[in-house]
Structure formats: C-alpha cells, structure tokens
C-alpha cells in the first residue's frame, strides 16, 4: 500500500522526470502494486483499485488536456479509440462500485 501511495504521490507531484521512474513509468508501477494487493489480499474493498485506476487515467488525460485534444482532433481512429477507452473506464468504475457493494453485503451476512 505504501508503494502504491508513493507512486501516486510521485506521479501527481510532478517531481519525476517526464518519462517517470528511470526506465519504468510510475503508472505501471502503481498498477503492479495495486494488482498485487488485490491478488493476495482479497477483501470487499479491493475493487476500489479498479475505480482509482480508472479515475486516474481519465483525470490525468483531462488535466494534461491530451484527452480533450484527442477527442477534438478530427481523426476518426483517435476519437473512436478515446471514446471506447473512456466508456471502458466508466464501465470498470461502475462494475468496481457494484462489486464493492456486493462484497460488503456478503461480509455482513
């Protein structure tokens, strides 16, 4: 958890070089840490990793203005790809929320 938080802090603080960690992008490190936590420590709240990663990708794209630029590019493949990506991320976030609710209700029984 601390490693994932450190990766999140590094990537959001802007203190890393543009290419991320030397030879390794921080986004992949975050996904690996969260994936490991989910795989080996399954609880009702583990789907929150999918929700956070989805929010991180979309908010990063919006804050960097790359997502909006890609959607306004006029290139059919780029626009379609970004729409599909965003739709998939929304579905992943909703499914993660539903899994959390379902898992939480199982824990109470």
List the total number of helices: 5
Structural class: mainly alpha
Q: What portion of residues belong to β-strands?
A: under 5%
Q: Assign a percent range to the helix content.
A: over 70%
Q: What is Rg?
A: 16 Å
State the domain count.
Answer: 2
Largest sheet: none
**Uncertain stretches of 5 or more adjacent residues:** 1-12
* Overall pLDDT confidence: 76
What is the H-and-E element order?
Answer: HHHHH
The N- to C-terminal Cα distance equals 28 Å
Shape: flat
What's the number of extended β-strand segments?
0
Transmembrane segments: 23-42, 49-67, 79-101
Keywords: Membrane, Transmembrane, Transmembrane helix
In short:
75% of the residues lie in helices and 0% in strands.
């Amino acid at each position: 958890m601390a490693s994932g938080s450190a990766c999140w802090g590094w990537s959001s603080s802007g203190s890393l070089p543009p290419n991320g960690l030397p030879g390794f992008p921080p986004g992949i490190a975050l996904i690996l840490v969260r994936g490991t936590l989910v795989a080996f420590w399954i609880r009702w709240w583990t789907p929150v990793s999918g929700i956070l990663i989805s929010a991180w990708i979309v908010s990063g794209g919006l804050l960097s203005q790359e997502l909006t630029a890609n959607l306004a590019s006029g290139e059919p493949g780029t626009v379609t790809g970004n729409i599909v990506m965003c739709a998939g991320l929304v579905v992943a976030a909703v499914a993660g929320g539903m899994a959390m609710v379902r898992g939480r209700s199982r824990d109470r029984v």
